[in-house]
Amino acid sequence: MVTKITGVTLDQLIQDIKGYTEKSNTEIVKTNGALHVFVYGTLKKGRGNNSLLKSSEFIGEGKTVNKYALYTTGIPFVIASQKVSHISGELYSVDDETLLNLDRLEGHPDWYHREITKVEVDGKIYNAYMYFYPKPIGSLIKSGIYV
Fold it and tell me: Is 145 a domain residue?
C-alpha cells in the first residue's frame, strides 16, 4: 500500500515512518529511530547520484512488497497506479538532511512524489520512503529492475 503524503510537516512525516520494521504480520520492531529510503535508479550504488547517500547506512538490496510499474527514458520512473512487478532496489537509513537533499534532487513534490511503501530486505519488511512519478512515461521495464 502506498500512502499519499500531503498537508503535514516534515517533522510529522518523520515521526510517522521513523524507526519501525515489520518482521511478521504481528511483530513490529523499532530500529533505533531510523528513517528509511528505498532507491531503484540513479541513487543506487555505482550510479551518478549515489554520492547523496554517502553518509547514509546501506541496509541491503531488496524489493517492494507491492507491485508497481517501472518505466525508463534513461531515467527511471515508478508508477504506483499500475501493478506490473516488484521493484528491485536498495534500502538506506538516512538522516533528515539527506532526506531533504533527496527531495531536492527528485523535485518532490512537484515532479516525483515521496510516499511510504513496504520493502523486503533479507526477509524483513521495512516501511520506507520511495519516489513515485504520477504517470507512465518512456518504456516499461517488466522485470522491475533498472540496470
Answer: no
